[in-house]
């Protein structure tokens, strides 16, 4: 018995139509220009070497909350937070009257090879927070860490608890060695020190290909075959191309910082097991006592919920809230439902604290 | 963007495929992801059309080799070494042999995954469960293939053998790169 019940004539027509639509969609895509990095008006208010701190221009009456500093990952570019007008977490936060800042780490080059995690977690992030506090007359800021940037934000908060009034982590790995974490399974086998010794900085393409390899058929063949489905929808094609551009816009990683992150977090899992020190200072998560909102995605293939949930028992905070979003690692930024749910969840939580 | 020469040897080819994706697809689908998708539809369309009245999975089996080859190409593109250092006499024979062994090892893994994916697809199509809906379009067949492929991949990729093979491929390439660096007199 077979489930196949495909009519030959229909199959032939389907193939012809698919190839026609695929080619048409690809041709239309070639005409788009999606070079803009983000869509909301903003100003560069502080620079430290390649790091740029952006402040977004208000779009609503100020809610009177402390400034919100978004600490994005070193991997990929932060304009995912403001991809296009109808897919922008930042716009959603601005619409609720938040004063939003975003840290852009830039593109490390050969001169940045020796940058350490200490530089990112203490020096650059610290300088950005100093600037915001000084400019806004605030004693502490609200910090929103995204993915790897969430891990870095946790470390910064543990090292400088007085500077962070509330901490929000989004799709942030905390326990790097859970069973579902395929990336961790692979990375734990890598001789990262030798890699950095030979390569210097780590090519962004290598990381990008690794991420695609986590679900290779869905993230390659199926995704590109999907062009045929949207061949006649200019807006959907533009969305597709913006996402493609972001996915493949992968900065190289400063060699030393990359090696430290892989070794300390993925291989030693030291945020959970203990023993982590950055810049010579022990990072003790129990020193994080501020209110915590931990947002993770139920279908995240990069940072599975099991990697984020352990934050609940890790810190010294007595005010911990978990929010599970029904979606994946990318959908949590750009899906339509995310635009409705996440800015509201974050803003309302901040208003209560 | 970084210099392509700074990435894994098959990485530039992979990235180049992405960059040229639109142009290639518009001209002549064949060598990239879109091309594979298009080829899949064409070939499977032909097979499925005849298979609708023939026995299964015998007819599907005829596609197995093609899929294995194509997907192996997708995951392990050809190595592109620095041309100036491709002469084995200039490179350390040991690191070249290590690289070759590593590519063979990962190739075996990919082939096993492709075989498993095909086995899963055949089983899904030849099921005796009358409650499952019939597959009436190539699109549904394509979705089922992706589902089977990801399931087979996940089953292997979480295992030590795959992770070891990947790590060894990376290490072998790193040593190859180290060997290709200009030697001091």
Describe the protein's architecture and organization:
The complex is a heterodimer of chains A (353) and B (185). Chain A is an alpha/beta fold. In chain A, 42% of the residues lie in helices and 16% in strands. Chain A is built from 14 helices and twelve strands. Chain A has helices spanning 8-29, 89-95, 117-136, 148-159, 182-187, 192-199, 204-213, 217-225, 234-248, 255-267, 270-273, 305-308, 331-334, 336-351, and strands spanning 42-48, 51-56, 68-71, 82-84, 87-88, 100-104, 141-146, 164-170, 277-278, 281-282, 292-297, 320-325. In chain A, the strands form three sheets. Chain A has an eight-stranded mixed beta sheet, with helices on both faces. In chain A, helix 2 crosses helix 14 (336-351) and helix 3 (117-136) packs across helix 4. The radius of gyration of chain A is 21 Å and the shape is globular. The model of chain A has no long low-confidence stretch (mean pLDDT 93). Chain B is mainly α and 185 residues long. Chain B is elongated. The chains are: A alpha/beta (353), B mainly alpha (185). Chains A and B meet through helix 1, helix 5, helix 6, helix 7 and helix 8 of A and helix 1, helix 2, helix 3, helix 7 and helix 8 of B.
């Amino acid at each position: 018995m077979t489930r196949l019940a495909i009519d030959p004539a229909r199959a032939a027509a389907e193939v012809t139509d698919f190839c026609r639509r695929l080619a048409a969609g690809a041709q239309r895509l070639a005409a788009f220009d999606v070079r803009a990095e983000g869509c909301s008006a903003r100003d560069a208010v502080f620079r430290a070497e390649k790091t740029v701190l952006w402040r977004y221009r208000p779009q609503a009456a100020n809610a009177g909350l402390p400034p919100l500093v978004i600490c994005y990952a070193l991997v990929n570019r932060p304009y995912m937070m403001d991809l296009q007008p109808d897919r922008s977490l930042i716009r959603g936060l601005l619409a609720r009257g938040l004063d939003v800042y975003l840290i852009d780490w830039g593109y490390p080059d050969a001169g940045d090879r020796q940058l350490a995690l200490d530089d990112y977690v203490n020096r650059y992030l610290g300088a950005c927070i100093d600037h915001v506090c000084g400019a806004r007359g605030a004693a502490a800021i609200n910090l929103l860490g995204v993915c790897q940037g969430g891990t870095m934000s946790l470390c910064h908060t543990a090292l400088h608890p007085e500077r962070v009034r509330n901490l929000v982590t989004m799709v942030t790995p905390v326990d790097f060695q859970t069973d579902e974490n395929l990336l961790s399974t692979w990375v734990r086998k890598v001789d990262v020190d030798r890699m950095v010794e030979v390569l210097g900085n780590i090519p962004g393409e290598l990381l990008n290909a690794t991420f695609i390899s986590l679900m290779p058929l869905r993230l390659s063949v199926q995704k590109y075959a999907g062009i045929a489905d949207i061949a006649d929808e200019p807006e959907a094609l533009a969305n597709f191309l913006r996402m493609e551009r972001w996915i493949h816009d992968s900065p190289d990683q400063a060699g030393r910082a990359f090696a430290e992150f892989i070794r300390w977090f993925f291989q030693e899992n030291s945020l959970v097991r203990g023993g982590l020190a950055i810049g010579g200072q022990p990072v003790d998560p129990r020193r994080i006592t501020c209110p915590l909102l931990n947002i993770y995605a139920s279908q995240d293939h990069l940072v599975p919920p099991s990697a984020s949930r352990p934050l609940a028992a890790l810190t010294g905070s007595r005010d911990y809230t978990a929010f599970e979003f029904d979606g994946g690692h990318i959908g949590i930024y750009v899906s339509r439902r995310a635009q409705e749910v996440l800015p509201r969840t974050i803003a309302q939580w901040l208003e209560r604290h | 963007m970084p210099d392509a020469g700074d990435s894994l040897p098959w990485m530039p080819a992979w990235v180049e495929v992405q960059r040229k994706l639109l142009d290639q697809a518009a001209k002549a689908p064949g060598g990239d992801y879109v091309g594979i998708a298009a080829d899949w539809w064409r070939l499977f369309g032909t097979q499925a059309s005849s298979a609708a009245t023939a026995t299964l999975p015998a007819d599907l089996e005829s596609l197995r080799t093609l899929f294995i080859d194509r997907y192996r190409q997708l995951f392990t593109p050809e190595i592109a070494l620095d041309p100036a250092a491709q002469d084995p006499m200039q490179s350390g024979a040991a690191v070249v042999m290590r690289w070759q062994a590593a590519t063979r090892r990962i190739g075996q893994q990919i082939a096993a995954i492709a075989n498993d994916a095909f086995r899963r697809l055949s089983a899904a199509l030849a099921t005796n469960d009358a409650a499952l809906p019939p597959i009436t379009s190539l699109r549904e067949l394509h979705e089922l293939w992706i589902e089977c492929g990801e399931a087979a991949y996940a089953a292997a990729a979480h295992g030590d053998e795959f992770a070891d093979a990947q790590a060894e491929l990376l290490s072998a390439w790193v040593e190859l790169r180290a060997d290709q660096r200009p030697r001091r007199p």
